[in-house]
Structure formats: C-alpha cells, structure tokens
Amino acid sequence: MSEFSNRITTLFRIRYPLIQAGMIWASGWRLASAVSNAGGLGIIGAGSMYPDVLQEHLRLCRAATDKPFGVNLPLLYPDIDKHVQILREEGVKIVFTSAGNPKTWTSLLKESGMTVVHVVSSSKFARKAEEAGCDAVVAEGFEAGGHNGREETTTLVLIPAVCRAVKIPVIAAGGIATGRQMLAAMVLGAEGVQVGSRFVASEEASSHLAFKQKIISAGEGDTALMLKQVTPVRLLQNEFSRQVKEAELKGAGPEELKTLLGRGRAKKGMFEGDMEQGELEIGQVSCLLDSILPAGKIVEILWQEFTDGLQNPLKLS
C-alpha cells in the first residue's frame, strides 16, 4: 500500500498517519527529524527543555529535515510564555499541547499560524479542546506512559467515545507500538496514532541507554499508574516507585508525595540513567518491546504491519 490519505495526513502534510509522542528527556531533534524523514510526524518534547535549549533543538531539527515536525508543549510548564515566544520567533507550524487548559493558549497559537492539537483523556476534555479551536485531539488511554488521566479509561473504550463526542480528527494514543495496534485504533475511529514508548527505545531517543534497556526487558505488570493525587504518571518498577507505592498505601497526601518526588527525578532516571532512584515513565506496551531500533526502521515496521493487517486482518502473526 503506497498511498494513504486522510484528514491527519492532510493536516500535517505527512506520508503516514503516525505521530511520535513528545516524551520528556527522550524527544530531542535527532528523534523528531528521524521520524519526520521516515514519513511520520516527529515531535520535539519541550517539557524538559529551557527556552534556549528548545530554540537550539528547533534549529537543529530544521537543519536535519525538510519535512514537517512539531513541538509538544505542556501547558503547566512554569515559563510557558517564554516557550510560546520561541515557537513564534522560530516559525513553528505544529504544536501539540498537553497537561492544562487548551483555552488559555490555543487562540494565540493559531493566530501565529500554528496547527494546534491537544492531548485529552476523556470525551469531556475532547469537547473542550474542540470548543477552544484545536484542529485535532490526541485521545490518550490509561495504558500510556508519562502523564495520564485520572479516569483510567482504556484506549479501547476512549477512542470510540471521543470519536463520538467531537467532529475534529482524533489521534489514538496509549498502548500502541505495533502496526496491528495502529490498525485496531483506526478501526475504532481514530484517523492516526501517536506512539511514545516504542520511540523511547529507539537509537535516536535522548533517553539514557540504561533506561532503554530496562524498557525492552520489562514484562507485563512491570508498570503502574501512580501519584494520582499530584499528577498521574505511569512508572516502571524500581526503588523510587516502591517508595511512592508505600507512601500512597500509608495514606500520604499531595504535599508528602511532592516532597518524595522532589526535583529532577525524571531527569535522574530517564536522562542520567539512575535506574533505582529515578522516575521512569513508560507505557504498558513496554512489555511487547524487545529491541532498540533506529527510529526510521520503527516507522517502516509499523507501516508494514499496518498494511499487512489491512490486507489480512484475521492473520494472528
């Protein structure tokens, strides 16, 4: 299957309806440009970057690809106004917002000529994103890594619910690392998928090699959604996650959990490679991953599996 076109490929001007998630400490210019060059939409994760670092990554990405790419912008970022200014100065065309109210920034971003997509975990928030003027939404199920929804709605339930709730295109996320999972999400009504965990375990991801190796050795049940009183996040098991679990079982409140979380936990784990005391954010689908591959190869495999599934949907392997 050489040609594929729908509202998502048209919106972003990409070959495949496949978006690489903007994961903190993993999604720099190398990963984003590699995915875009392979036909998907690469995303730079601004959540772990100071404004000057973001600007550097934007310029390096632009030099590495002539294809469209975007930026993931967590709306809870403390210096978000500085990030927005960088996006405007650098002429960024595609922004995925997350972790906040899209009403706050969408109008300004769109007035600056940007296509805006917001990440949601429920039909309610999908409708709010549509009302705010977003061009599409990412509906991210409970299986996803990183920040997650408190409702714990699985992707299998969330996608058709969100598709029923809004008229703008829906991108599925959460538990998607194979072409057949991509096909299943699109059968449910999504017009594209956003893939995170599979790209964290890529050669170009800026995450630490020790983290990548821990991901591909993970089994079923090795992740859990935690810190729901603060900001829900799915974590791989390690000493830090055990401390969090113990604190939550003892009835720790938000302030105690924030103290335990401290500063720099995610950087310590995912970027610096402390596999015991660091925060290791990854999705449930890590149990299906067994290799660290070039990002372009991942895109190629996903699309081949997707097209094979279209041609023979009942084949199991």
Features:
single chain; 317 residues; alpha/beta; TIM Barrel; 2 domains; 8-stranded parallel β-sheet; 3-stranded antiparallel β-sheet; 14 helices
Structural class designation: alpha/beta
Classified in CATH, the superfamily of the largest domain is Aldolase class I
CATH T-level topology of the largest domain: TIM Barrel
Rg (CA only): 18 Å
Word description of this protein:
This protein has 317 residues and is α/β, with parallel strands linked by helices. The protein has two domains: 7-206 and 290-311, TIM Barrel; 209-285, no CATH class. Helices cover 41% and strands 15% of the residues. The protein has helices spanning 7-12, 29-37, 51-64, 80-89, 106-111, 123-131, 155-165, 179-187, 197-200, 209-216, 239-249, 254-261, 265-271, 295-311; strands spanning 18-20, 42-45, 69-74, 94-98, 115-120, 136-140, 146-147, 170-173, 192-195, 223-226, 233-236. The strands form two sheets. It has an eight-stranded parallel sheet. A three-stranded antiparallel sheet has the order 7-11-10, with helices on one face. It is globular. It starts with 6 loop residues before the first helix and ends in a 6-residue tail after the last helix.
Topology:
Layout: H1 7-12, E1 18-20, H2 29-37, E2 42-45, H3 51-64, E3 69-74, H4 80-89, E4 94-98, H5 106-111, E5 115-120, H6 123-131, E6 136-140, E7 146-147, H7 155-165, E8 170-173, H8 179-187, E9 192-195, H9 197-200, H10 209-216, E10 223-226, E11 233-236, H11 239-249, H12 254-261, H13 265-271, H14 295-311
Parallel strand pairs: 1-9, 2-3, 3-4, 4-5, 5-6, 6-8, 8-9
Antiparallel strand pairs: 7-11, 10-11
Helix pairs in contact: 2-3, 3-4, 6-7, 8-14, 11-12
